[in-house]
Design brief:
Elements (H helix, E strand, L loop, with lengths): L1 E8 L6 H11 L9 E8 L5 E8 L2 H7 L2 H11 L4 E6 L8
Antiparallel strand pairs: 1-3, 1-4, 2-3
Length: 96
């Protein structure tokens, strides 16, 4: 499994309510997405950064998602270019 962190650095802070509204508008695009096990939307305490943590079966699924079209869609949605970081996840702990 790999995890990607996608972050958007905003010019102005966004409220939790406004961020949740945007997140809810894009969540359906990821439901049932091939290779995506989980996605968590995130917002920093100060509202200046938003993004997501994606838990992928492998990097091929992640790379297929982060296409030119996807990058344009999210840049238009958030008004910022996404910063994508990739992480290997060789060990996990689940308490639920």
């Amino acid at each position: 499994m790999i995890i990607t962190q996608v972050i958007f650095q905003l010019d102005e802070p966004i409220s939790l309510e406004a961020a949740s509204e945007i997140f809810n508008s894009t969540a359906p695009k990821y439901r049932g997405k091939a290779g995506l096990n989980h996605k968590y939307y995130i917002r920093s305490d100060d509202g200046m950064r938003v993004g997501g943590l994606y838990f992928w079966e492998n990097r091929d699924f992640a790379d297929a998602t982060y296409s030119k079209e996807w990058r344009k869609m999210v840049t238009d949605k958030y008004g910022a270019i996404p910063i994508i970081s990739y992480f290997d996840a060789p060990v996990s702990v689940h308490n639920t």
